[in-house]
Amino acid sequence: MNRATIDLWVGIFVTIGLGALAFLSLKVGNLLTTQSAPSYRLEARFDNVAGLKPRAPVKAAGVVVGRVESIRLDPKTYEAVVSMRVDDGYGFSRDTIASVLTSGLLGEVYVGLDAGGDPKLLTDGGMIAKTQSAVIIERLISQFLFDKAQAPAK
Amino acid sequence: MSSDVLVRGLRRVGAGTLVFVTRLGFATRFFFAVLYHTPSAIRRLQLTLREIYFTGVLSLVIILVSGLFVGMVLALQGVEVLDRYGANESLGIVVALSLVRELGPVVAGLLFASRAGSAVTAEIGLMKATDQLAAMEMMAVDPLARVVAPRFWGGVISMPLLAALFSTMGVFGAYLVGVRLIGIDAGAFWGNMQAAVDFRTDIVNGVIKSVVFGVIVSLFAVFEGYDAQPTAEGVSSATTRTVVGSSLAILGADFILTVFMFRGIGL
Lengths: 154, 267
Known about the structure:
heterodimer; A: alpha/beta; eight-stranded mixed beta sheet; 8 strands; B: globular
């Protein structure tokens, strides 16, 4: 095995190895679109965020506009404080409504933003005042059964 | 009589412990000696390239074929379960996460240990058995710089590339089975995968794992070869120790790394 052949094969090996890494980063990990856009932070308080996790998508009209950054509990009010990063390209009016939604019956939990009509926009660190908590199916069912039992039999 | 058996048993435990600790200390000093000779591996680049050829390029076939088949089998079994919940579209997530985080580095590391690590141990062990290492020292050539360091760095460089190729082939195999054979929508397959796989937490951590495994396998391989009894039997048992030891070390290190990387402790 002479030197030129070894050099050639090592070159091919390193190139396709780095190519595989690039493939994993770009095609599988989607590096370009997730890391590039500058973003600003919004906060919202919910009574219940059941099932929401950090890095869950933030969607407006079904379009992903950002990601949930962190979720913590306010020890005084016992509300969940969700902080999220929204891409700089999207502005939201100050009366935007944030709600915790589920895509499909068993799908992922995400934050939905419904823009309002206020001409003033939320800025970095802004707090979304109007929120709607997660719908918990168990509670809905128990409420439904309770109502059934209460209703006079016909 | 029975106390005699007890003493003999304890003596055996003690001797085994001493041998283990001595070898561990020797291995640690050996590791630092190899690191110290790193510049000579760079200066004699041709030797290191040769080792990348022997450990990396010649491992390509087994890595690529295994990666492809692991990906295809993962896809078949994943669909089996996901189909019950009508979540076929999540197949891309299951396959990509398990390959990039775990299977890519670990299985590539195990294959690398048995394909390349054993060969390096046998080579260095035979060089020792046939007094080639002693001859080098006679000629004032440090075998650590001339023989060991290029083999060590060749392995450390090859391993992450092989792991990345393994994962890529696995994803490709899953695509073949999931999208082409079973008929999952290609857009959902790639889209869900891209939404779930994170560059920093998944891909970078996978690469870190494969580098660590590369160091483990290469160190085992060169150390066992260098430390082998210079007989035919000694070389064969050193080769076995390389494969068994580095495989167990990979699995142990993988568990520890996973705990730190994905359970929110540090990193």
